[in-house]
Amino acid sequence: DKGNHRHFMEKEIHEQPEVIGHTLAHYLDFVEGRTRDIPLPFDFSQIDRLSISACGTAFLAGSVARYWFERYARLPVDIDVGSEFRYREMPISPNSAALFISQSGETADTLASLRYCRSQGVPIAAVVNVPESTIARESDAIFPTLAGPEIGVASTKAFTCQLAVLAALAVRAGVQRGHVSPEQERELVRFLSEAPRFATAALKLDDQIEKLARELSQVKHALYLGRGTSFPLAMEGALKLKEISYIHAEGYAAGELKHGPIALIDENMPVIVIAPHDRNFDKTVSNMQEVAARGGRIILITDTEGARRATINAMETIILPDVPEIIAPIVYALPIQMLAYFTAVFMGTDVDQPRNLAKSVTVE
Length: 364
Ligand code: M6R
Description:
- The protein is α/β, with parallel strands linked by helices and 364 residues long.
- It contains 14 helices and twelve strands.
- It has a five-stranded parallel beta sheet, with helices on both faces. Strands 9-8-10-11-12 form a five-stranded parallel beta sheet, with helices on both faces. A two-stranded antiparallel ribbon has the order 1-2.
- Strand 8 (221-226), helix 11 and strand 9 form a beta-alpha-beta unit.
- Helix 3 (56-72) packs parallel to helix 7 and helix 7 (157-176) runs antiparallel to helix 8.
- 5-amino-5-deoxy-1-O-phosphono-D-mannitol binds next to helix 3 and helix 11.
- It catalyses: D-fructose 6-phosphate + L-glutamine = D-glucosamine 6-phosphate + L-glutamate.
- Its main location: cytoplasm.
- Catalyzes the first step in hexosamine metabolism, converting fructose-6P into glucosamine-6P using glutamine as a nitrogen source.
- The active site is at residue 359.
């Protein structure tokens, strides 16, 4: 039931504040300011590497999580798309653990990666939205996302709930590995607890984003740029746009611009820049200046501080509240989903069931 929404995707975008809060509460004790003691098939302090495999949007959630595990837990992460991971015949060290991320829990390439790790004797955990799925059954432990059923082929609430679980796990790993002190744990848990409120604030930007989407629906190509955790988000923005609006879009690490894609920039190329005012901000702004100097049209997704500092002509800005760094990927996911959604609505595509795609990809 879509309720009063035009599409399941719209409904699922709007459910995010609630389901993110629900998911976080499963992993975090907000009252005590602690990560919960969830049963793990391995101890984070006993492993020296975490291998992540997933496909599509789930892979991009894992790609954000790599930054978190490395930053908060000093745990090296190896991540690959399922279709590569399964055939890499990666040498797996005895002190590693494997993590799989899948909304459906049925994705063939992710499942095959899991079975490869099983054959290598590594402990296996999975972040899944469907607890009765094959991936869930074949894992030693599951970390559920409590997103509820996701009907739209384009993943939205499952993605932000995956991010919520992974952020909580990264903090937990940091605690177990001795890199997050009790005070830091309390602070990070408080920051995470604020994600639903900021997601609600992001949803209120719908009128402005719809206007920008009207313009975006006129173009043939678009580029998304970001650094740090905003790099996988740039790829997620591009994936979302291409899968439902059929506009060709690419997501790039902003620093890669001058290694090729800058050749594409002219007045017909919109560039969507995802840049909260964080440690990477100044570098991303200089990439934006390179785009502006070549006549590229910029849509900057930032916060109030970022908007104050980045003054570039011919730029549109989507301004989110200033949010703690750890929740930025969760909050910034919403405007990029909305931008793709409204663009697809203007294009008149079948938003919930885009051509050539299936909700669950059970063949390789
Ligand atoms: O069910 P899964 O999370 O394993 O699915 C993985 C991908 O097929 C999925 O995320 C796909 O990329 C989505 N259509 C993206 O919106």
